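User: Assemble these into one structure.

Assistant: Restating your components, then the assembled model:
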Amino acid sequence: MLYIDVGNSLRGGLRTGIQRVVRSLALELASKARSATKLIVYDPAAARFFALTDPELIRSADSLANIDPESRVYFHLDAFAEGDVLFEPDSTWTEPVSRGALFRKLKAKGVIVAVLNHDAIPVILPEVCHPNTLVSFAETIADHLQYADYALTTSAGVDRDLRQLARRFLGRDMTTRVIKLGADFEAAAPMGAGEDSFAAAFPELAGLRYLLSVGTIEPRKNHALLLQAFDRLEAEDAALVIVGRKGWLSDEFLAKLEGHPNFGKRLFWYSAIGDEALLGLYRRAFATVLPSNYEGYGLPAVEALSQGCVTVVSDAGSLPEVTQGHAAVFASGDGETLFAILDRLYRDPTYRAELKTRAKSFRPTSWREAAQTVAASLDDIASGASHDFSAPLRQMVYLSIHPEILDLSLASVRANLGFIDRIVVLTSPAARSKIEVVATRYFPGAVVLADDAVAGADLPADHQARNSWLRKQLYAQDAIEPNFLAADEDTLALRPLERAHFQQSDIQRPYYFLEDMGTWLAGSPSTTSYDRGLRNAWRLLREAAYPARAFSSHMPQIVNKSLAKEIFDRFVVDAESAALDEWSLYFNVASQLYPRHVLAKPYATLGWPMRTGDWLPEIAPREPAFENYCPESYAAGGMFVGLSPLGDLERKTRRTLDALAGARRAEIEGSGEHSPGVLALVITPEAMKFISTGTVLAGSRNVRRILLIHGAGIACAIKGKLDMFVAEPGGAVVRGESIDLGELCWMPLLPPETPGLYLIRLFATLASGARLEARGLLTVIADKGSQ
Amino acid sequence: MRISTQGSLYRLAKRLSIGRVLRYLDLWARYLWRRGQSRLDAYAGRLPSADLTAQAAAIAAADMTTAKRMTVASWFPVDLANARLHRALLASIAEARPDLSLSETKLNCIARLKHGSDLAVMVDELVAGGETAETVNTALYVLLLRRLPAPSELPMIGSRDPRHALIAIRSGDEYRKQGRKMLSS
């Protein structure tokens, strides 16, 4: 379902600028697919949205009060469903519903948010805007930058402005599509198709060759410059007609206008006229002039040209772009050049004829065509048709620098993934020749690329940031197919799989290992680049209202080339971008945008996590098929000691699941008299408090975590040294740990070997010099499950 | 540094469990040192604040998944209202429009606002600090702009107390224009 919010245009009742765009587009879109499109309005009195029963109402209604109750179908936000699209073409910054709150709520339901941005003027040129608009607009554009999945823009200029704002304020980009607006009128014929009716409507213009300027009276439109130029014209029949309502900061100009000696004689201001009259004015104008300081689009210029009217515009904003060389252009603010053009128009018929010819050759877009373009964009956004999710999966794409490990991985792929018949490997220049030997041994046509050629010589030093940057560049290479399996070199396929494991027709299946990255406690005693990448990705996704599962499951994953480009272009803008877990970034956004094509499942990897003590296993691998290969797993004390890297699936599965079950029993589920509860230490700059609920299983193999909780919020980082001691009731110390505070979320507790009641004491010396202490009791019980 | 596992000294040390003994001695030394410091600091006199006690109670009542979320969010907080972004955008226009008087105080106030209860506290702080009603009104206006007011906030918003009344920032009653007034009925 496509929901189009038209509330502001209905509420305001205006028919200029954005309101004209909204009415024309909404009507065309609703006519095209009536049953799949709803025009919606927020009613503050009912605190609910309603849908118009008849889209035609948007043509006739000019206020909310004019829409009778029978024409409204009220609905709750719960009516929105996964995969629906909310389209906002309107000036929603004066709407009574917070866009941020609305977008967050809808995105949590899987709705795609698409906005139409007309310009970013209040942020780019704050000096020419009304104060209320400034604050409202800044708040709303912030929500657009943060939450909009797609932004349609009315010109390349607006597109550039919007993306620059996203980069400046968020350090990322936006996914945008430039559309064309229409220029035809609702009115079938202009007023005064016959001369008599026009003369009757505008008798004061009889015998005058008038310049026409259309637009709200506000400083940005720069009417004052046009008036100055007009005053210098010597032609006695020269006139100036200004059409537009009174806007903000216009009192001074209007006083000058209305006090002008020619006002009402050769100088006219029409504050409210209909489409028919405006059409008539365009057609009879000597020239239309737009002297604006900035225009996101410049609809009057396009309308004038579409009527074959000689048109003069400044070079500000998008005006040169939308007039496409069919108008005379002067430098914005250059009154001398403007006067010279106008003076020549009145003096030199040949010059005017030339401009007239240029105007008549302008080929405008109709609102129907414009709506078709918008509809095509929205259809594509909703369907994902342009991403070709069904193109056959047959390629595997690696990052690798260790030939011996790649060798193992490729042997396993050849043996078990029969649908893979080609590979691409990205490696370092130093390892390239050895990697090439290994790759071509298994896949004779293998493409081996060096990272300096693909992503430049200056790669990020941080491991995770480098991988994100490399994958972004690699996935855009010509050698990459529309759908491919992305993998690391340490991936081993352990049993035969069909393509359907990853792709069935146009459905793709990524695999996750954690429901919420916000529960990723990371390693201890120190965090790694991978941990930071996971946390950065979690924050970014949550703040933009996307789901935040962890997808770096250390198994091959199917990636769509064009969607990956779209997502990485938006979030990984340059090599300096923050370290992100690129797997989780891509699959969370992809599954939100295309819920019918990207369906996630729990992961299927053995050996991940590498040690069960690293990680609380909320999800165990299902139907294991892959291994995260690590030589340490086969060394003494390793989980897979005595087993073969390319075999022993059943024994590896049993060992992995046993270890995970043991960790779950010790720390999450409990059994019998054991109830794990929570062990935690809350730390503030002034005090600490230890929390211990439940029991602890005896024995160091039942390792527990003491969660470290920053009790002071974001006001100050707490850094310092923390020591923990576990002592018997008699006073003998049996266990202890020492860590640095700062980024760690937990410290390990190796439970004593003997059951009993133990005293736990924690001492901290903070960077501020404060010394803190907390203490508590541990109830350690026998591990009967191990007997 | 990696110790060669082939060294005779290493083998002897391992046989005698010297590493374990040293670690145990170190544990005791640290423990005694910390206990001594603790006695000097008269730990018993410093009790946790009520906030900390309440937070501890919430954690004790949570399941492991919730406790993990609380842990990670406490060190790496997510700005769900994107207050930092909103503040940065407003700050960018403040310089060009001094008439808005978007001072640091006001911007901080806006960035901190999340709930009506924050507002009441903040208003008192601002007024006590000599801030004008405009500061308060701008903050309140922005708060309302971000979401619909909760029913509990309506009496405060509807009041005409100079500290709480919502008047337009400079001109026009934006609050009324947006139809928010109607929500209280």
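Chain B touches chain A through 72 residues (CB under 8 Å).
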